[in-house]
Specification:
Blueprint lengths: L32 E6 L4 E8 L11 E9 L1 H22 L5
């Protein structure tokens, strides 16, 4: 049986170090909108809130709240983590529509 590829086969693995999470400056926020774009050197994620509930409006206005800039390597690790998280979510709660 062939091993399923995860996309991380060529990323060098380092020994796992214990992690101590410091949440003293952590702030939570809500986003129901995300946009992503990239250059050769970085991946940019924009998060915001769509407050337009009237679908007949001619223009959609999104209040952007946060921008996260990642290296392509960090973005790849994030993509793998999100894929695994959604796989576990769907196993528990059922498939999400595309």
């Amino acid at each position: 049986m062939a091993k399923e590829k995860t996309g991380t086969e060529n990323i060098p693995q380092q020994p796992a170090l214990p992690v101590k999470w410091n949440s003293a400056n952590l702030h939570s926020s809500y986003a129901n909108y995300c946009n992503a774009n990239s250059t050769r050197e970085e991946v940019v994620l924009n998060f915001g809130v769509n407050n337009n509930w009237d679908r007949t409006q001619a223009t959609l206005e999104i209040d952007l709240n946060h921008r996260v800039v990642l290296s392509p390597f960090a973005a790849k690790r994030l993509a793998v983590m999100l894929q695994q998280l959604l796989k576990e979510y769907e196993a528990r709660y059922g498939a999400l529509p595309e």
